[in-house]
Amino acid sequence: MTPMGTIDARWLEDRPIAHRGLHDAGRSIMENSVSAFQAAIDGGYAIECDIHLSRDRVPVVFHDETLLRMTGVEGRVRDTDAQALAELTLGGTPDAIPTLRSLLDLVAARVPLVIELKGLSADLDGEFIEIVAETIRGYPGALALMSFDEWLVEQAASVSLSVPFGLTAEGTRADVLKRHRVVFAGHCSFVSYNVHHLPNAFVDWIRDERHLPVISWTVRTPADVERSHRYADQMTFEGFVPS
Prior knowledge:
Layout: E1 17-19, H1 34-43, E2 46-53, E3 59-61, H2 68-71, H3 82-86, H4 100-107, E4 113-117, H5 128-136, E5 143-147, H6 150-157, E6 165-169, H7 174-184, E7 190-194, H8 201-209, E8 214-219, H9 222-231, E9 234-237
InterPro entries: GP_PDE_dom, PLC-like_Pdiesterase_TIM-brl
Domain GP-PDE: 14-243
Protein name: Glycerophosphoryl diester phosphodiesterase
């Protein structure tokens, strides 16, 4: 098994990352939609997206645990089969909820992908990493996985992944930063950190001692851009088009 900390993730530094695609609800381009991903591809930006498992264990591209905000339908992603999810449209647009497989087919290695895994609990997510690993197996493009969820980071450490795995994190309290180091150590190749919580000792340790990349989230204002530029290696942006 290749330790994840040895997998090169420096390509994350190369271009800005469009948060949930290059979405713009004012133009009916909804987050985590095919239209948003195509817009990011056309702009030459890397793509960040979110993955849940459906009830039948298919990785689908969606941020929230529940469906209501984006589809107007009550229910949870994890309680709904992939076929039923594919029939739900996003924000009243023609775009439906994509699967991870369809996203890979769309992007086709044209821009990098940064995929956040959205778990529910250690008990419910027992096969999450294995299912995603099988779905992305053989994908020829730049791709990284990441998660807030400690149990998914631990799962990833036990699977022979061929792509970088990162810790998504936030916080500034000393006990929180100490816990981040415990979760990260030996298991991850990069960090995605809340831009409003930069700088901090954990991120400094990642960059200065581990010499691994830090990307920031979610950059929305000129002040955020400046903070990310100073304290991170690349930004995950939303609501504007980087110059």
